[in-house]
């Protein structure tokens, strides 16, 4: 194992005095002692001369330099556009949706407090989606029928309603959709809300020329916005 070489100092270590400003010792004491001769430094030959030249240049500079900003000249000629874009005020759908939601809230309270003895027996309700499709297309809705329908069935109907729409029975089908909107509960999980959003997109993209279907879609839109917090649908 090789022995460590002992360090030999060829020159005595110099210690600079403490600075009054920084309370630290300068790394180059010779520069501190020779600051009076900074004017004689021309071309730095070593590190000390270079440091002295830098200090000399720093002392000759201003502490800061302010930038002068010239004010912009105002143009005397007014530029008239070749054409002006006609902007029409955009009507917000929020007032209409609020009115629809107030109607839904009114009927929702009626359905949640519906007398139990007036509810229909489950055996009288359709047991399959195909049976519900026939019922929605051929029979007018009743509050007893809607109050007796469970949430799972209503969500399945919303999920498939866009494929069931028939031009001859759109008015009746739109009434069913409005009634089912009134039966929706106050709280739904994320998956069920996503099902309603998909149903809304389907209703908006089909039968766009039929006001009754679009009114039912707006009712569902109002429920999603004001009951389930889907404000991006405004």
TrEMBL record:
Coiled-coil ranges (or none): none
GO cellular component: nucleus; SMN complex
Chain intervals with Basic residues compositional bias: 1-10
Domain of life: Eukaryota
Pfam families: SIP1
Residue span of region Disordered: 1-22
GO BP term, pick one: spliceosomal snRNP assembly
Record field: transmembrane: none
Homology family: Belongs to the gemin-2 family.
This protein's name: SMN complex subunit Yip11/Gem2
Organism of origin: Schizosaccharomyces osmophilus
Organism lineage string: Eukaryota, Fungi, Dikarya, Ascomycota, Taphrinomycotina
